[in-house]
Specification:
Sperma_CUB_dom_sf; CUB domain-containing protein; six-stranded antiparallel sheet; single chain; six-stranded mixed sheet; signal; 392 residues; binds 2-acetamido-2-deoxy-beta-D-glucopyranose; disulfide bond; 25 strands; CUB_dom
Amino acid sequence: MYNKIWWLSVASVLVIATALTTYEENFDEGNDLDVPSERKGKILFPFISIVRFANTDCASANTMNGICLARRECNNLNGTITGTCAARRGRCCVVSRSCGSTTNVNNTYFTSPGYPAAFAGGQACNIIVNRCNNMICQLRIDFLDFVLAQPNGDGVCNVDSLTITGGNTVVPVLCGDNTGQTIFVDFNGNAAITITIAATLATTFGRRWNMRLTQLGCDCPGLAPNGCLQYYTGRTGTITSFNYGAAANSALSASLVTGTRQIANTNYGICIRMEAGFCGIQYSQTGGDPFSFTLTGDVEGADNTVLGTAVGSVNGVGCTTDFVVIPNPITTATNVPVGSDRFCGLGFIPVTSTLKPFVVYVVTNANEGAVGGTPPDIANRGFSLAYTQTAC
Ligand SMILES: *[C@@H]1O[C@H](CO)[C@@H](O)[C@H](O)[C@H]1NC(C)=O
Ligand SMILES: *[C@@H]1O[C@H](CO)[C@@H](O)[C@H](O)[C@H]1NC(C)=O
């Protein structure tokens, strides 16, 4: 009798031990991080290791986001282990991909070949992004570092270009400096989103990119409203046009005047989440830079009595080529309605809008040069607008 019970216990201990070993092997057969307490913990409490952990996102020490995986799974993805997660049972795995790749891993980093070294170009480079599961609605693309060639002097991205296709959001063709920009692209059902960068061969310039591709679930609180190419949250913030920057474009336009940084053919919406307790939104051009609102006209022919002032600002029917749309605005300083929702020219006077949702539309036409445009565009930079939500 006692004998039988003893043998049964021995047998069950053996069975359980075998099961544990097998499981453990599947998940973590190495200890790349060599955490002594972890090793000890496994011997003392082996049952801890059999708990399967969720493949959630994880943050790593170098601020890159990863996904929590077993070591072997990370190796299979050619990922880089940057730390532990799931109470040390998993590995925070950062996945980077470059030209000619496919990914369905959340938080994939899409980089130029040899990043962060300059990429000489000479080839088109693309990544195909598949949804990591069928509850994904949107791809968030963070331009962590993004330097492509400037557009030509007429604002056309014909040296380098970023093209994004396959999604449900129309993304304009972009180029130039876009570090810090974020865009949101709706998935079109199960179709993949393809990101393509065409880079003309050139050796003397610091072309590079590092874009984080975050897959957002349909119920994710960070999801942008459908169709908003950009989405801002927070009571205050700064929105800038693509390739907005301090230096002028060194390329000349077709008519041999100074070229523009403003990119042609960008037609998109920027949405701003209305925060709790706030009912209106005020916009002003950012201070300290006289070029922070230069959408149309001759920047070089204007001095500081025009740039950034009421003299330089244009609205209404005067804005037909490149402009931003702010619905039903009121001049902040005077509380007088502007009477028009289009703004362009070389200056922007602060306005407040109480129309919901908070959206700014951006329109640029096909030609940002001095030819064919009325008025001619010379050396335009685009815009940098600060917004502040106003309490109810
Ligand atoms: C992808 O990662 C981000 C941030 O790291 C997270 O907010 C998001 O929910 C993740 N998506 C999925 C499908 O887990
Ligand atoms: C990982 O790298 C190897 C060798 O370069 C390659 O053959 C394999 O396809 C890569 N796997 C993934 C998932 O990218």
